[in-house]
């Protein structure tokens, strides 16, 4: 019997084509890669897998094409028990992310949306009720994000990556908003109605975002951990777990999915972020996104 859903992710699913190389190419430059991998990805699917592996019964709502890439895109979600009944099969091809990773674990990513572009407001409304904590990202149309928020019955975790235009009322539905330091500055500019991007320190940006009325906020800082802010409390900086990173692809998604899972299990935001930091730290020690996610919580 299907367990009650604790986390629902509405979002993107891709196939990642990852080239491993000594250094990333500059503009107009060709660099020989050492190898490449074909693997499942997409921020929505990554977060769904992370939430499931972090202990929450999870559903993924999205879209893939009617092509061979669709089986790769959904394979690990299916294997780990994520509910996939409401993943649409469209005439658009499955989304593809083209990823370059250098020897220092830095990456560059280009995304072809494909079927993800069909996860519109109309499609999300047609999918029906949303159970549990809702998790969203910026790789589907804004109309799909807003329709999912309108249908939510629990708290909403918004990872607005990439940063897309979203009305103030919808941004303020996030509880928490989970972003990195660059995304935080872009969203602050949106809320301020400013064309300039703040270069202030992350705690200052965090406070300004909270002053706009966010219920809660997490700003991830890579090797420097994360900032956690909630209305009525001081901003906390939580340290990162120190590890040797070989590939950071999908680490932010692992963090977001794990945060949602732990919130669904009753932890407060700081506790959930501490767990998610440990979860994400394990993922950067192996190549790939979903393949690097821990299949056991024994070491967490």
From TrEMBL:
Family annotation (CDD domains): ribokinase
Binding residues for substrate: 14-16, 42-46, 139, 253
GO cellular component: cytoplasm
Assigned keywords, A-Z: ATP-binding, Carbohydrate metabolism, Cytoplasm, Kinase, Magnesium, Metal-binding, Nucleotide-binding, Potassium, Transferase
Keyword Lyase annotated: no
UniProt cofactor note: Requires a divalent cation, most likely magnesium in vivo, as an electrophilic catalyst to aid phosphoryl group transfer. It is the chelate of the metal and the nucleotide that is the actual substrate.
Major localization class: cytoplasm
SUPFAM superfamilies tied to this protein: Ribokinase-like (SSF53613)
Descriptive protein name: Ribokinase
Protein species of origin: Glutamicibacter mishrai
Phylogenetic classification of the source organism: Bacteria, Bacillati, Actinomycetota, Actinomycetes, Micrococcales
Gene name of this polypeptide: rbsK
């Amino acid at each position: 019997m299907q367990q009650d859903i604790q986390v629902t992710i509405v979002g993107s699913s891709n196939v990642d084509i990852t080239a491993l190389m000594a250094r990333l190419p500059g503009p107009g430059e060709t660099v020989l890669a050492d190898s490449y991998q074909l693997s499942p990805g997409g921020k929505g699917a990554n977060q769904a897998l992370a939430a499931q592996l972090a202990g929450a019964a999870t559903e993924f709502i999205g879209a893939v094409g009617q092509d061979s890439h669709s089986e790769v895109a959904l394979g690990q979600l299916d294997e780990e028990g994520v509910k996939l009944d409401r993943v649409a099969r469209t005439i658009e091809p499955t989304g593809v992310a083209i990823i370059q990773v250098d020897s220092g674990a830095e990456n560059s990513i280009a995304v072809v949306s494909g079927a993800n572009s069909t996860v519109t407001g109309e499609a999300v409304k047609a999918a029906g009720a949303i159970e549990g904590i809702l998790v969203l990202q910026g790789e589907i149309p804004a109309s799909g994000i807003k329709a999912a928020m309108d249908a939510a019955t629990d708290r909403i975790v918004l990872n607005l990556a990439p940063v897309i235009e979203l009305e103030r009322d919808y941004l303020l539905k996030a509880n928490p908003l989970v972003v990195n330091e660059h995304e935080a500055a872009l969203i602050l500019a949106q809320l301020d109605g400013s064309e300039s991007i703040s270069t202030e320190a992350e705690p200052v940006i965090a406070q300004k975002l909270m002053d706009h009325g966010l219920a809660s906020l997490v700003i991830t800082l890579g090797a420097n951990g994360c900032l956690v802010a909630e209305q009525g409390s001081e901003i906390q900086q939580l340290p990162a777990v120190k590890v040797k990173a070989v590939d950071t692809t999908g680490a932010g998604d692992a963090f977001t999915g794990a945060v949602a899972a732990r919130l669904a299990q009753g932890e407060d935001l700081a506790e959930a972020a501490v767990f998610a930091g440990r979860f994400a730290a394990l993922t950067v020690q192996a190549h790939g996104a979903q393949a690097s996610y821990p299949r056991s919580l024994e070491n967490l």
